[in-house]
Amino acid sequence: MSRWRELPADLHPHIHQLIVRLRKLKDRSQLSARQLASKSGYSARSWQRYLNGRSLPPRKAVEAMARIGGDDPARLLVLHEIAAERWAEGRVATAGDPESTSSITPGSAPATPAPTHPPPPTERKRYGRYLHVLVTAGAAALVLSVSATVLLSMRLSEARAQLAKDRTDTVAAAPATVSESLVPVVYTCRLEQTDGRWYAGLSRTTETILAYTHVGPEVAEAQCLLRRAGMSPGDIDGVFGPKTQRAVVRLQTRDELVVDGVIGPHTWKALREAAPK
User: Fold this and answer.
1) Please, which residues bridge with residue 255 across strands?
2) pLDDT tens digits for 124-172?
């Protein structure tokens, strides 16, 4: 488990939530910074900025971390969209802060006071036209700002609704993990081939993400198919333990897949269509 630096105190809660989630996935993968860079395509220095809150990771980096850590990319991308909006809001607020541009460089001369005598009539007319232009431009900017705020609020509401739906679906569909109260179960493999694909009678999934410590019939289905492919996962107990993970790695190596020890759509396809060894 990595010992992370404390995130900046002024970081928005949505950005904080995304970074904490990415940190947990990095810890789960047990990869070093160089290994993470090799698997994700983003440098170790970039990941250091992302995971310490100094820079917002791009969408592709979030997808890569979800794949490496065995998480659902859809949930992380919803968090990333909300965090990106908050990050953009923070940058706009910083750029518009008058204090950031009104400081006086040390050693510079003080401004010359304006003359006290009134300007000539020509100058007053020019000033009036200039003031009119400023007021018109300010009104237009205000309308655009209000429109942008309304649009941003609508998008944020949609993103929050989608996030709530994804969380509900995930609670209902995500595999359980190993716990102290887990009761040992022995599953029976009933292998059959349908339309060129193999099934063991425990689950017909082709997309469920399974990783280390997951339990349930989906894991038992994968164990049956691993055994049929000649990669012994140990007992068919529905527990994604070390033996099952090593069997997955051997299958991924043999079939030239991404070797991460996680069962995803590509590994499921290899299990369903693999010839027995």
Assistant:
1) none
2) 666 667 677 777 888 888 878 777 777 766 776 676 666 556 554 544 4
Q: Provide the strand spans (E) within 1-127.
A: none
Element (H, E) at 194: strand 192-194
Residue for token pair 């079939």: 255
- Count CB atoms within 10 A of the CB of residue 254: 14
Provide the token pair at 129. 């036209």
Q: pTM for this one? A: 0.39
Residue 83's H or E segment, with its range, is helix 73-95
pLDDT of residue 267 exceeding 90, the answer is yes
Adjacent-strand bridge partners of 194: 197
d(CA 246, CA 232): 9
Question: Rounded CA gap, 139 and 266, in Å?
Answer: 55
Beta strands in the chain (DSSP E): 176-177, 192-194, 197-199, 214-215
Select from 36, 43, 48, 34 the least CA-distant residue to 5. 48
Secondary structure class of 9 (helix, strand, coil): coil
User: What is the residue type of 185?
Assistant: V
Cα–Cα dist 20/81, whole Å: 15
Percent of the chain with pLDDT over 70: 74
